[in-house]
Amino acid sequence: MADSVPVRCPTCRRENAFTPPTFPCACGAPLTLPVLRGGVPIEILHRTWEASWVEVRCEVCGRQDAWPAPESGCACGTVVRVPITPVPAAPLVPDGPAGELPGPDTATRPQPAPRPAVGPPPERPAFHPVTIRTARDCITAAAQYLKWLGFSDVARAQERTAAGVDLRGTGVVAQVDPTTRATALRDIECVWLNGLSDSAVPVSFSLAGYARDARSRADELHVPLFVMDLTGTPQPVNDAADELISNGGRPPG
Asked: Quick one: where's region Disordered (predicted)?
């Protein structure tokens, strides 16, 4: 668990202990929001979609994503947004002399396992994302992506089922989680069961990533997982998602 930091309420001046939230990065590593020690919290008087997200870079894989902005509540009723450390610019690494060995810092720093670069088939046109501002935009962006993959008749379910299916098409069912919590194990199992009953590929899209047990279960069940950023561009999380990108709406072979 991350260490708590003191956050002073701007209304009553009470100092509250705040523990920064931790989210699962797409690479699987835990990502704790880097709260700025000594930063001045901002009272939330009016919520906007843009202000509810912060850019944070994963220290393990270097991926930069938008995450829910950390908030802290006080006993007096004031809710504040806790500032985080700004994302530093990616350093430029100069080429060293030929044959030069990496320094000790480079040698000991943990390196993520490289993911194979899996892109769309050459005949597939470029994907045009849908900017996400609302929960409805998340579902629209996921539908557009599935159509881009080849599931041309994907449509939004008229009413979300109890099992959480948001999109259906020939050979595919999909669940879209637009919340600010990590998608849970039960959600993965539900969409898998729906795919099993419909003889369709079950696909999951999430805005805030996946709980560790949900990610493990999806790998076991071969459920493609995607995370979405606010640009509306889904990114594959596991091997099943990479395979879906390669095969699209066509049967593998």
From this structure: 91-125
